[in-house]
Fold these 3 entries.
Entry 1:
Amino acid sequence: MKHDTDAIRFSEKVVMIRSLTKIRTEVMLTILLITAMLGQGQSWDSLGLNFITAFPENIAFYYPVNPVNALNITAVHADTVVTVSISDSTWTYQDTLPAGKPVTVTLPLGIEEYSFVQTLQTVKISSTECIVVQSISQRGDSVQTNVVQPMKNLGTFYSIPALNYSMMINTFFQSTRNTSKRYSSYRLVIINGEDVSNLITIVKKPRNIISILDPYAVLQLQTDGTEIAVKSDYKVAVMLTHPCEEISGCRCNMVVNQLYPDTLWDSSFAVPGVLNVWLHLTSSTNITATGGNIQSGTFEAYSSKLLSLPSLQLGSQFINTSDPASLRLVSPGFIVEPIPLSRFSACYLVVPVNLISATALVIAETEYRDSVYVDGDLLSSTKWSTISDSEYSSVLVSLDDTHVIWHPSTKIAVYVFEMSATLYGGPAISLSANPDPVGCGVIPPKFNIILTPQTWPESHQHCMLISDELFSPSNKAEQMEMVDFLNSEGLNERLWIGLRRSLLTLEWYQQKGKEVHNMTYTHWGTGEPRAAVEGMCASVFPNSSTGFNWKSVPCCAQLKSICYSSTHYFSLDLPSNENANNSNSNAKGNA
């Protein structure tokens, strides 16, 4: 019966594909670029509950040395249950992770994707609370790392950079290298992130390629430079990869670049200063670019041209484009996608693989650069360099361990670079886009209305169970924060708040979680609070005509309630305070 079912499914796919291929492929593709959805004031981070990735082939020059493929997973909350599984295997990893301590999960041999057909060589990661994930592929001293983006950051439309491998090799080595067809160009790896069959269209000249990806399946294609874009019905992850890109001394290094959907493109980029690299620009329209002594003129859509940018050898640069685009720094064995201004964040996690050569590059507004923190200490450095034609500066930071680099009042960019057979690395892991003066606030504050009527003690216990507290404003700002939320909810009935009278003194106090606080702010209505016999607990009526005033109510009354979860701050799980202090003091800026 299973074989019959498979045969029917296959026949249905064939019929669907044949019908789809009748669509006129000559019709011009009109790509609607949406201006970057994530502006400076909006949120961007790499936190999530569900991830999917694949491990492209890494042959390096040491073949047949066995590869080591692994995931570094860091949980935000303590007791986070993480499950890692392989779609076509019974292999499963599950563990309960601590907060703020990267845990390495080594995957079994044979996980690498080398086939040019659809397979289930995908790795799925899920968790009960937010985590961040970094993949590591190593063969001998050929190492690549990649920040695995959560499902929320994936998309359904990706423009493909036209990186011509032969042109690049000739550009760097001024000679023609004879390579087999298998390794003569880059590859596209397309991963179906959904538990549904996903229609994929690879837009290419002269004829599109149409495929149906099974749930959580992966498809690898050899590129020839005519691929323009990947479209899908449901979310996919797209990687640009090469298993053995030539470097000096008859050696090679694998490269991996996880593409961002076009909706995340921008027009301003922080380009890190890196030696001996060229700039590649991808755009769906003819555009101009400025900054970094870049050559003037108009760049054609989907150009394969490599741009010399000698100013990068002198320090970081800011590049601006006339329309949203995607940039890459490329050289043999190296691809890095610069962080656009719209994806600057306030807080980053840096998890180096090779502590001997690990370096972070930090880019911050010049006016606020002296307020950058590494873990709990200010980054002390006199080596900041201003970036020409911008309001930003950059500095290199030696890394001796895992660290959090953050800013309390503005957004920054952070890259991590390491050296093995060649330079590798890229943008650090973004934990939070929103600056917070206290630290790295990874989970924002949140109100929650409990619709089940309960007594005040029951509401207090329920809020303690699902959040932090039965909310009670401590000042006018918190009162207005509550008012704004209640206005958006449109409720028209009383809600419990976390105020009550002492049974001994009859004085009012705030019950904030397990802590008791004296009253320093009140917002009572007219005639309130009433006598103790008329009400020992407090409520708020969400109506602007009554000014959202407080009212005393008997504690046994059955009311809905308003719970509140405060900001959750990320902190590293360090072995001891002494080690933490040593670690902080060692991560300082340098030349």
Entry 2:
Amino acid sequence: MFNMRVKGILEYDHIEDLHRSVNNATLMNPGPPVLYQLNTERKYIDGTNRKVRRWTYGRRDRNKQNKVILMVGETGSGKTTIINTTINHLLGVKFEDQEFYQITEEAKETSEITVYEVFVEENPTSLTIIDIQYTLGHANTEENEEISEYLSGLFSDEDGIDYIDAVCFVMKASQNHLSDIFHSVLSLFGRDIENNIVFLLTHSDGGPPTDALNAINKAEIPCRRDEDNEPVHFLFNNQQKEKRDELCDDVYRSAWEMGEESMNEILTLLKEKNRKSVQMTLDVLNERRQLEACVSNLMDRINEKELKIKELNQIQEALRQNKDKIEKCKNIKFTVNRSFKEKVPIVNEWWWNRNATCCSVCEENCHEWECSSAVDASWCWVMKDSHCTVCPGKCHYSKHVRANKKYVTKVVKVETTFDELKRTGEKPESSFDKKKYEDTRKEHERNMKESANTRKIEEKLNSDLEKIQYEKYLLLHEAYKTIMSLSKIALKADSAFTLQHLEFLIPRLKEEGKDEWMKNLEDLRKAGEDKKNKGALQHVKDFFSYFTGKK
């Protein structure tokens, strides 16, 4: 009886201490467990976009050791519960307290980043959790560019994040294939972050998470691994705030203790000196933006060269078909496609694509996509040391204009004659009115001269074609080097951005006879497609097995 009384007094004192430390919360549900919403101070970090939010609980203490965790997971993975479980652990909440505190609110169907900061007076460690929220829990190329921009803002802001201690991928323990979200996030980081990536496996029954680990290994996710070469992972049950029934008290206690054990292991892991500065990742994000703008611009310029080649080929074909008539000085007409550049307004685009940075000297779209955060051309991502890294002349930013207009290449059909083509190089001769013999001789001379002129035009066309073909080769080489450079610095080499340009580059490198380059890009594409197809195939097999009972 005495021991039970002492135990009761100790539990009462603990609850009193907890209530003193958690004195800024709103009752949401009487429970049990009693559910509280922590009241937080809220602000936007990135200012204009209002997509990067900071929610702070408690009084900021710069003297405390702070740990930064980035969490990402698809809808339904249990990420929100994990975030709140982490906060409760930091607050010192015990199972016997019959209480649960949450810092999150219901997620919106929009891409955004929320930074949760928790400062508990009695705890020597403060915690920062970066929560990446994808629309409806899945990712695409356009949305990933949004998240990339938000992270850049978060990492570069004066009041932003300087380092990361762990990147936590949240998924169910029974999940047998990986969401595209994980691949999208991996493409945003540099290679130095690999050993900081761990997995938080939710809805676990406490047994070996075989399905999840197999899915991680099949997807070849770069991550921290243990002595058995298995992905480092931690188990959670996600029943912490479920309404409790005395008959199932042992079940809820077991779930709570599993989370406690995992949280202790995570905090032990965070004590290691494995912190990574975000400067390298920020450099990767910025370099990636410049490389993306460069590749996009290169594709436009290669297309221009190909249009010009087609135009010259059409002229050559017309000269060949009409050679006999041209030699007789007939004014043969034919139609060619001529390409030219025109600056037009940007319409029907999302707000982040409504402005482009264009070089008025080179007449190039230096940064057409995702050019939303720059105040003027000097602030654009493609500027380095006050000069553009994309346009052919690498011009000063003052030669650039950031506005709701961009250059487009247009093609028009024009009717021209051989004489008009010839006049671009020399003036036409005067005709002569002489005797029949002289007329015949002059006509013959003119025919011979026209024949020579035809050969000169053909020679110039051939020269122009060779020059343009070489310029195209240089552009292809630059695009190839850019793709390979991006693949080397990114944690995930076969990102969606890389793969989307390979269909354009590979056949053109084949035309140029660059077999080694083509093979390197083919290998890159195959690696990306294999991972995607293996995941899809496994998902179909698992679906079939579930309904048929066959393995």
Entry 3:
Amino acid sequence: MMVWLVSMDKISMWGLALGSVCCGVLSGLKLVTQKTNLVEWELLSLNSCSMEFVLIFDWMALLFLCFVLMISSSVMYYSGSYMMGDKNYNRFMYLVLMFVLSMMMILSPNLISILLGWDGLGLVSYALVIFYQNEKSAGAGMLTILSNRVGDVAILLSIGIMLNLGSWNFIFYSLYFLDSDYFLLKALIILAAMTKSAQIPFSAWLPAAMAAPTPVSALVHSSTLVTAGVYLMIRFSPALEGSETQGALLIISCLTMFMAGLGANFEYDLKKIIALSTLSQLGVMLSILALGYPDLAFFHLLSHALFKALLFMCAGVLIHSIKGYQDIRYMGSLVKFMPLTSSYMILANLALCGAPFLAGFYSKDMILEVGFMSYSNYISLILFILSTGLTVSYTFRLIFFSMSGVFNMSSLSAVSDEDATMTKAMTFLGLGAVIMGSVLSWLLYPECYMICLSPLMKSMVMLVSVLGGSLGYLMNLMSVNYVLLSQALYNFVVVAGSMWFMPFLSTKNITKANLWVGSYTEKGVDKGWYEYLGGQGVFYMWSKFSWVLYLSQYNGIKVYMKMFVLGLVIMSLFVMI
């Protein structure tokens, strides 16, 4: 049995790695030749409308698939050690493989095929979130799947709107969608992408999904599920040019980016801090896409996938080593006991901040400079600057509490870098987090962007990053006591920590109103008027009527004679008429 468990993850890892290499080679060839292959299977034909399963293979789709398979192979290999000993190990591995297969269907330019993939992602993600089968996992899974069902309904409505075009291959109808008549279609596609990418007001499910095992979190937050919405928007971006929906998407994504950065600075759960950082980076991708640069959004999508998967893997090693704790206040000085894991975690955090010459630097720095140069409003510009500073702030806060702070664990804790399997998986992604940013920059941008900024705006990214990092580190060194703050500031901190009341708005308030209506309906209708007008009331009425008939005919000769005479009178009247 143990041999089968070990071989399970290795077979999956080598298969996914081989597929990643093949997709990478094909992507390079497609990028050089600028050719695209389209594969179609006709499922149903009704009059002039045919339902097809379509897959597109161009350089973008193959490169995205290459990264998905590469990160999935590392996660599968990592899971071989992380999930070892779990009684549901095989089920976990099959669910992860189904998750990757569903993600591959997102590559389709056809809404029918995308719906199949999105439903698969929603179903498998629910099964993975409730994997540990406790009350918290059940609530998180229900919130996750119901939030994503909103996007699925939006895709269904989009399919109905596109019915009159004769096909659901939206990649062929970009010019038609520029017309204002298709405003509803574009709004529905943006709504679907917002639910998958957890933008405001659907942000509550992303931190809640941390109830899943850490390898699942590494996969979800790097290259699957949350990136499905961004990839759909990248494919659909030609239809958004000059549309009214672009401005709305820009404001929503900037607010999401700011909210996630602010919330992460007041969060103490290790995995939730990393989840909020994912939410912030998704806001960065969608905001630059709304400004009209889908290629930059795709670039950041790929580079972010590498260091975010590495960050979650490091978090999983920390959680394993300190016996399941996720509160960063119970950590500290881990760099002395786990130097290799700590090095990878600091590397991933610096890449997240956009430190020079790491993977995040090439994409994030270019996004911010292009954003500063674009024709955007002051609100978006200010939110970009604040979010950049907050990202560095919560990153240094995390490093302080877990890596370089005071040792807060038990004196009996035995923390070390002993697991070779998890270390090898992190080493592979660590190399990617260092070199893949420059490699992607050379591949995707053989000609540099023409960026014209003033010296102040050019240095704004580095200036805000330094200020944010210094502020975050100093706040923790001084150990700010919230009791000394005013009540208004304390309330602000609480609101920030609860993501602007979104978890309460998404769960308690909605269910409270529905439960009140249901209780009132049960008391006033089900146990009220329905008792008289429903089945029980009708049964009671007919029972009483039959009892009257029974008494009228109970051995009464006078009654029989009167009824006989009455019957004769009625018959004679009918005869006379």
